């Protein structure tokens, strides 16, 4: 199977890479987004937004699980808050998600078997969050002074936070962690809108940066 895709009108779609057939994921609808494959490939977590499907539309955002065939649909959060699915933990039993507020994005960890929720830490920007392969560290985006964006790594509870990259005047976004846990890959946006974004590797322990000048676009996952 290929990635689960945000659909243009009717929800989420799954593409079979062998046949190249793309099918609508049953039970999903307009406004469903932030799709995340479980580590075993059997379950998809996503964020269910307002039925209008408009980005940033007011209304509750809740997290839903479904099997890849559209069965076993289960809503994990309730209420009027803005809950966003962010990342599966490597064990496939826990899910990271944020609750957005005026004070920032509150990061939580939910045990999908017991429903127990652990509050981790607060970020000032509700951006991309990725988990290291060993499940011990996070890489994420935050806003620095003067509205610049920085990339950080930290332990799961937010401790031992380290700034990986402050790319001003460039903007670095959308992370993926290497399978060996030593690198993250990120998209670097030039302030000149005519120039295409390029990819860069960052060594998480030394902050060494390698620009991949022949590659552009975005990386959503890094195959083993």
Structure characterization notes:
The protein is mainly beta. It is built from no helices and 19 strands. 0% of the residues lie in helices and 50% in strands. Strands 4-5-6-7 form a 4-stranded antiparallel beta sheet, with no helix packed on it. A 4-stranded antiparallel beta sheet has the order 8-9-10-11, with no helix packed on it. Strands 12-13-14-15 form a 4-stranded antiparallel beta sheet, with no helix packed on it. Strand 10 and strand 11 (117-123) form a beta hairpin. The model has no long low-confidence stretch (mean pLDDT 88).
Summarize the structure.
With 224 residues, this protein is an all-beta fold. The protein folds into two domains: 1-126, 6 Propeller (Neuraminidase); 132-224, no CATH class. Helix content is 0%, strand content 50%.
Structural class comes to mainly beta
Q: How can the largest sheet be summarized?
A: 4 strands, antiparallel
Count of the separate structural domains: 2
What's the CATH H-level homologous superfamily of the largest domain?
TolB, C-terminal domain
- In helices, the fraction of residues equals under 10%
Q: How many H/I helical runs?
A: 0
- Anisotropy-based shape: globular
**CATH topology descriptor of the largest domain:** Neuraminidase
Q: Numbering strands along the chain, what is their spatial order in the largest sheet?
A: 4-5-6-7
- Residues in β-strands, percent: over 45%
CATH class category label of the largest domain: Mainly Beta
Distance between the termini: 16 Å
Mean pLDDT: 88
CATH architecture of the largest domain: 6 Propeller
| Count of strand segments | 19
Low-confidence stretches: none
C-alpha-based Rg, rounded: 17 Å
